[in-house]
Amino acid sequence: MDLKNSLYSLLSRDEAKLPMAVLGILVGILAGLVVNLFRFVLEAVFPYFSGGLNHDDFESLSPLWHFFLPVAGCIVIGLLLHSLTPELRRMGVSYVIDKVQHFRTRMPIRNALMQFITASIALLSGGSCGREGPAIHLGASCGGSIGSLLALPNNSIRLLVASGSAAAIAAAFNTPVAGVIFAMEVILMEYAVSGIIPVIVAAVSGTVVTQLLYGDEPVFIIEAVTMNSLWQIPYVVLMGLVIGGLASSFVSIHKFAVSFNHIDLRLRLLLTGLITGAAALFIPEVMGTGYDSLNDALQGQLGLSFLLILLGVKLIVTALGLGLGLPGGLIGPSLMLGGLAGAAAGIVGEQFIPGSFSSGTFYVLIGMCAMMGATLQAPLAALMALLELSDKPNIILPAMLIIVVANITSSEIFKTRSVFHNTLEPGQSGFSPELSRFLNRFGVSTIVNYKFITLAPETEKDTVIKSLQTNPEWIVIDYEGHNDAIISRYALELALDNPEFTLEKLEAATAIMPISRHATLLEALEILSEKKANYGYIHIPDQNGNQVISGVFSQDDIMAVYKGK
User: In angstroms, rounded to a whole number, what is the distance separating the alpha carbons of residues 417 and 404?
Assistant: First the structure.
């Protein structure tokens, strides 16, 4: 086996830590550059048609702009996407999760390009959405593209897609740890030590790119904050219950909107624009990501009535818009909604017991992480995001408590899943989640048996006997790619005793299926199960570029890897 195929086999076994670390760095740098280009477009273009305003300062525009800007943006997006196939319209975090979980890790560049263009239009026109979801898709596509360009096995590309997602979160928020946890918790849905190295270095690389281009300026302005007394714990628990209910409401409204996806996309987006524009006529703060309003809440500059109205309107408009097909993200809006709820809770608590409650900033921060954790069903990622965004480790105790309460309230009391599940396609695998995740870590090259020979069906009996002198364990009968069969050496030797022996009509031979050498073990098992075959083989190019059978394997070989874990 040459060096190239040896490295390929090593990558299939998930043991090539150094090569994967190098690839993780490349993915992180590329994802960081692409995500920051996305940010630059948003921040550079908006002032040109808004008279020099900040990219998120929609409130300063005239009422006419408040209504027509979202409508115009949604019309343009609808026209752009209408001519595309349904597959090319797929984008966002749910799309990335689907690719990773269902071994479809080849991510078309065209989808990423449409994500960049349409998300930019959505955000520049005041769509009620965030930029982090599109950034994750862009980062994941960077990882998938590098893996595909190098023709890596799918299990390695899967890690590079997750690495790109981590780098995108890290680059967008300056939060490398949260990026790593998000990739493991939401994208990969597992904490596998073997796969964490490229994810870590990618997150670090993405953060470095952002800090080189924009510095380490924090996303939110946060003052010193602490929890004044442990007597506030019951109130924090109550907040968790309320925010868990809000998260469930958001997911439910989003799911309701997704149920209309059979309607023409242009009509759905037009409705989204009309809903956003109508709401913005009265509350322009509903437009965009809302980070400016969230910063105002952190500074205690918003009154209770306005907080509650903005919270309700923003929740409904965002959930409906994203569910109807607006190509934006929901991580930013979830932070804003939780922050608004926290700010309102802080004001209410202070009114009941003046002077005994912590500052409003404290409640805004823990509300942000609670809403994010419950909406995404990603508690650890939310906690890490809070710690890195606020740099306030002293509030970790109440933050952990409110995240747990909000998650349990949303998932167990209201029975709602992660918002990303609303748009996930049904899984292809009929196997248990534990088995599927484990087998997805390995490439099929891990288990191939090289002790075989390939014979044509018309091979004479004497030639067959002579070929067995090389001591193969398996004999593949090659029908030039059609209905190929396999037989063990032992079964073939028994068949040779028959005076009427012909290789072409061996009853002991069984079907063998071609499997891509890039496939994961889960993908191979799924194909064999679907075809009702127990054996598979892979091709590799020879020195002349011709595809030749490289190795054979069975379903039992696949399951032996899992049982031997």
Answer: 15
H/E run at residue 535: strand 535-541
The last residue of a domain, from among 175, 199, 220: 220
- pLDDT of 14 reads 64
The number of residues making up the chain comes to 565
Q: What integer pLDDT is reported at residue 77 of this predicted model? A: 96
CA dihedral (6, 9, 11, 13) in degrees, to 10, reads: -130
> Residue for token digits 């061996």?
506
How far is residue 243's CA from residue 454's CA, in Å, rounded to a whole number? 64
* Number of structural domains in the chain: 3
Backbone φ and ψ for 455, nearest 5 degrees, come out as -125, 145
Amino acid at 372: M
Looking at residue 322, what is its pLDDT?
Answer: 96
Place of tokens 């030639």: 463
State the alpha helices, DSSP H only, in 174-232. 176-182, 196-214
Instruction: Strand 474-477: give its sheet, edge to edge.
Output: 452-455, 474-477, 485-488, 510-514, 535-541, 547-554
3-state SS of 395-457? Answer: HHHHHHHHHHHHHHHHHHHCCCCCHHHHHCCCCCCCCCHHHHHHHCCCEHHHCCECCEEEECC
Residue 87 vs residues 107, 110, 140, 330: alpha-carbon distances, Å: 11, 10, 17, 21
What is the three-class DSSP state of 476?
Answer: strand
Judge if 67 and 150 occupy the same domain.
yes
Q: Is 54 contained in some domain?
A: yes
Rg of the chain (C-alpha set): 28
Ordered DSSP codes for 81-142: HHTS-HHHH--SHHHHHHHHHTT-----HHHHHHHHHHHHHHHHTT-S-BSHHHHHHHHHHH
Decide if 432 is inside a domain.
Answer: no
Instruction: Output the CA angle 476-478-480, nearest 5 degrees.
Output: 155
pLDDT along the chain (565 residues), means of 10: 61 77 96 95 78 72 92 96 88 89 75 95 93 94 92 89 95 92 90 83 96 82 74 91 97 96 95 97 93 89 95 97 94 94 91 71 93 95 89 87 96 93 66 80 88 89 90 88 83 87 83 89 90 88 73 92 79
Task: Measure CA 128 to chain center.
Answer: 21
**Residue 232: what are its φ and ψ, rounded to 5°?**
-85, -5
Q: Which has the closest alpha carbon to 282: 253, 314, 254?
A: 314
- Greatest CA span in the chain, whole angstroms? 101
> Residue 163: which CATH number?
1.10.3080.10
The residue segments making up the domain with residue 332 are 230-423
User: Does 259 share its domain with 211?
Assistant: no
Does residue 399 belong to any structural domain of this protein? yes
d(CA 312, CA 221): 24
What is the model's pLDDT at position 565? 61
Query: What phi and psi values does residue 449 have, to the nearest 5 degrees?
Result: -100, 125
Amino acid at residue number 283: I
Q: Are residues 10 and 141 in the same domain?
A: yes
